[in-house]
Amino acid sequence: MTRLWIFLVVALVSMQLAEGGGFSRRRKRNYGGYYRGGMSSHKSNYGLDLRKVAPRCSYKKTLVRIVVEGPKGGGYPNALISLQDEKQMGKIHTDRNGVAKAVVKGCKISLIVWGKNLQTTYELVSLKHNKIGKETIYVKVKSRCNYLLHLDQRNDGPVSENDFDEDTYIQYQYVAKSGGYKEAGNGIAVSGSENPICINWKPFADGEKGSLKVQAVSQSTADTNVLHITKQGDDKIAVLNIPSYIDDSYKFLICINVWAAGDDDLISIDSGFLNAFNSMGSVDLSNSVDDDGSCAWFKDLDAFADGENTLLAIDFSDSDDNEADGEYLEGNAYIQDCNGKYTTVEVTGDETYTEGFLWPFACICDGAKDIRGVKVLKNQDFEYSISDNSKCDSVCH
């Protein structure tokens, strides 16, 4: 009987060893390279590295903890963070310790960090290798700016269905010059006056040359606008508006980026703000132009006759509640043709604007069909009366 029991025990042990399972209480089973019941190595029976064949996102939702470190070290409190995952966009603030938390969806997130007198910081974070459903992100911010730039995309355009999310992402790049100093930068911002970019445009003394040039592109519409100014203003604020629609069915686009000194929003100009003059006097643009919200789209060039120069001028009186009247105006006009080529000219009137005055800013030379025939007029003051195109004689040859 004793020999029989010994035989049975040896037989059971031999069966376990033959299966390769040892004495584990849980049997390991193969599921296409993945194991259930415990795994001590990243390698499967097929020689695959399980870290490489694992699903892209282990968790549909991830709790992210964002730690913002200030310029002098330590947590930066009350920093504004714009956060976008693959499903939605939102805004959160850091607590008194410089920490913010949010639950996000998908395999990647982008975030933009703002703070008073901080340089705007952009981060793109991948979550596809996260295995625990939690992620800590560290962001170092810099205190290196003195000038606020507001980028805004409005629902303007000749086609009414061109709607967009007010929190559109905008790509930008800039060059700031002050005397012999030059700084360049780029990044991504969120549209809207409450999300300004803080850049470093150092003050420059009278007699020194300085300029700020910004190019911005909407990620929702791919439309572009350019701001080019040489006056800083006491409040050190600039505003750039991006039109929501332009395509090759329109020959020219003209946008006005003009704000009252110290204001963080553009002056809204009503339809009919654009005036034109040739050698015979005023030119009717009503059949050639679609205009809305400080931009004008030329759908044809019939108003620009061959062999004729046409002077363009803006009437800021056509603004909501005459908000330009009595204000010192800053900004520029931006002109683009259907090939994407552009030119700009700055508002340089040294006096405050008075209702009824016009600002001459460009000439369409010899019935121009593209930007090569558009000549801007620099250093033009506001004028009460314009009757012809004589200002174009000096720039159209």
Description of the molecule:
The chain is mainly beta and 397 residues long. The chain is 6% helix and 40% strand. The chain has two helices and 26 strands. Strands 20-21-17-23-24 form a five-stranded antiparallel sheet, with no helix packed on it. A five-stranded antiparallel sheet has the order 19-18-22-25-26, with no helix packed on it. A four-stranded antiparallel sheet has the order 5-4-7-8, with no helix packed on it.
Concise structural overview:
With 397 residues, the chain is mostly beta strands. Helices cover 6% and strands 40% of the residues.
**Order of strands across the biggest sheet?**
20-21-17-23-24
Estimated share of beta-strand residues: 35-45%
| Secondary-structure content class | mainly beta
Mean pLDDT: 77
Order of helices and strands: HEEHEEEEEEEEEEEEEEEEEEEEEEEE
DSSP strand tally: 26
Low-confidence stretches: 15-55, 160-164
Broad shape: elongated
Report the major sheet.
5 strands, antiparallel
The number of helical segments is 2
What labels describe this entry?
single chain; 397 residues; five-stranded antiparallel beta sheet; elongated
Please outline the helices and strands.
Elements: H1 2-19, E1 29-31, E2 34-36, H2 50-53, E3 61-69, E4 80-84, E5 89-93, E6 99-105, E7 108-114, E8 121-126, E9 134-140, E10 147-153, E11 169-178, E12 181-190, E13 197-199, E14 210-218, E15 224-229, E16 237-242, E17 252-260, E18 274-278, E19 281-283, E20 289-292, E21 295-298, E22 310-315, E23 329-337, E24 342-346, E25 358-364, E26 374-376
Parallel strand pairs: 3-9, 10-16
Antiparallel strand pairs: 1-2, 3-6, 4-5, 4-7, 7-8, 10-13, 11-12, 11-14, 14-15, 17-21, 17-23, 18-19, 18-22, 20-21, 22-25, 23-24, 25-26
